[in-house]
Design a protein that fits this description.
With about 350 residues, the chain is an alpha+beta fold. Helices cover about 20% and strands about 30% of the residues. The relative contact order is 0.10.
């Protein structure tokens, strides 16, 4: 039987409470501690759906603490999706455990409108938000129990009406897959704050594609030091540069080749910044990446990794005639030396 170590187990053991571990409800029945029936079930961050037969075995059914303002952000990953959506406020809900669906119970207690401001919302990470929510949600659950709000007749107290409900499905590896060609810097930075290690695939030569993991990202404003790239020379190969105000000169802009979700090969432009790199994502924000891990290798400074990949000489740049002299229209062609 597979079981996970969770903090509540240690707390229960320290209080002398019996612990029952199970990874499925199949064939499992509600225990009777000291030969007395359990009258209320409480589930918090619990990934299994509790079947009706278990809920009916408890006199008052079950309660759940959900870290969102239901019905918004229903699902198993509300805090992650809250950050990715750029929410500025948060809240929590105590609801009954529904017999048919997750997060569709009767709302017994909820953070009142307009919710609580998320501290430093533009920089808040998942761990930051979790630490903010946990003690406040716990207090709400305790107060709900003291008020005996779970005893019929139940009184629904939810006061939020949402025009466009956001959902919070389970996080998958694909959620960490950076869409450099689709997402702006703000979107990517929110993903990093919510999910941490983001990844993409780049071509290390003309035939080999490898996953690279961006270990840390930070948002930086686009200043005169980091203009979007401009075309400076078209000869045997298209050359790009950016303006460095501190050095008062045009410096070469570098790139690696990545694959889009549709399999199209595109350039990812970056400017060296010490051992880090600045990815010029859009005209309002850029991203500083300090360290990168190439699959099968150890973490290294981002600039060293990207320059090693770029030395393959497997690619050169060309302009899409339809796009004119604009960087977004730059396309990749295989270097003739690879043919």
């Amino acid at each position: 039987m597979l079981t996970l170590l969770v903090p509540i187990k240690g707390v229960a053991q320290s209080l002398g409470l019996p612990v029952h571990e199970a990874d499925t409800f199949r064939g499992w029945n509600l225990p009777r501690p000291q030969n007395e029936a359990i009258n209320l079930i409480i589930a918090v961050s619990f990934g299994l759906f509790i079947p009706p037969r278990i809920l009916k075995a408890a006199e008052y059914g079950g309660l759940n603490v959900h870290p969102s303002l239901l019905p918004n952000f229903r699902g198993p990953a509300p805090l992650h999706h809250m950050i990715m959506a750029g929410e500025k406020t948060t809240g929590f809900t105590v609801q009954t455990l529904d017999h048919k669906s997750f997060d569709h119970g009767v709302i017994l207690a909820q953070t009142p409108p307009p919710g609580l401001p998320i501290p430093l919302a533009d920089k808040c990470t998942y761990d930051d938000l979790l630490q903010f929510v946990k003690p406040r949600a716990s207090d709400m659950l305790i107060q709900t129990l003291r008020d005996r709000a779970f005893v019929p007749p139940l009184v629904e107290t939810g006061g939020y009406k949402f025009e466009d409900l956001k959902h919070a499905p389970k996080i998958t590896p694909e959620d960490r897959h950076v869409r450099w060609d689709e997402w702006d810097a703000a979107t990517i930075y929110r993903r990093h704050r919510a999910l941490q290690r983001l990844w993409n695939r780049v071509w290390v030569d003309g035939k080999t594609e490898k996953r690279i993991i961006f270990e840390d990202l930070e948002s930086v404003p686009v200043t005169e030091n980091y203009f979007p790239p401009g075309i400076t020379d078209i000869a045997d190969e298209l050359k790009l540069s950016y303006r460095n105000q501190e050095r008062d000169e045009q410096l070469p802009l570098e790139y690696v080749v990545f694959s889009t979700a549709d399999g199209e090969k595109k350039p990812l432009f970056y400017a060296p910044d010490g051992d880090a790199i600045i990815v010029l994502s859009d005209s309002h924000q850029a991203l500083r990446v300090k360290n990168i891990t190439v699959e099968g290798q150890k973490m290294k400074p981002a600039r060293r990794v990207m320059q090693a990949i770029g030395r393959s000489g497997a690619w050169q740049l060309a302009l899409d005639p339809k796009g004119g002299n604009q960087v977004p229209s730059v396309q990749l062609v295989e270097n003739v030396q690879q043919n």
